[in-house]
Amino acid sequence: MGRGSVKAFAAIALAMVPLAPSKAQLPAKASTTDQQELDPVAIDLAHQLLDIVAPPATRQAKLAERFKFISEQARATYATKAGANDPEFSALVDKNMDDMWQEMVAVMSQHIPALYEAMARAYARKFSAPELREILAFAKTPAGLKFFQSGSLIAQDADVVAVQQQMLVDMTDGLPTLKKKTDASIAGYVANKSKAKVN
Fold it and tell me: Hey, how many other C-beta atoms are within 10 angstroms of the C-beta on 79?
């Protein structure tokens, strides 16, 4: 693998890490008080809405399709950064993407029930029961159902994909400079704190 390919792979990998929150960054689970304050009618309406736009039997497949699309975008971005003339790099990317995909699907499957329960609570928190009734009525129409189910399709539109891929490329281009700036800033802070302790 060429040196440029290695740098490209490392840069994009580093750029993608901040997109996933650490455990420390994740919000705490909803408290018992918070759950009790939610309108149970609104929660029930939210579940009805979710059952229409994402029937339980299709949820794993839908989420898998969405994450698969994200991994394919990442794969395409790697290829853009490295160029098309490095078969070793392409093979490395393919293996890593495939391994990552298998692990993601396994973890995702465990969280689907909790995810949709959380989504129902989120709807109930953001919308009143009367508002959810209106949304539910819209979702039951052909146009409404198409609107709610087209979210992932819009994200996969060729125009949207092209812009997102270019955005990732541009972001990774500036990553080395940003990393140096951050490292220098942190090093300066640590040095100043050390001096202050000595004094």
Answer: 17
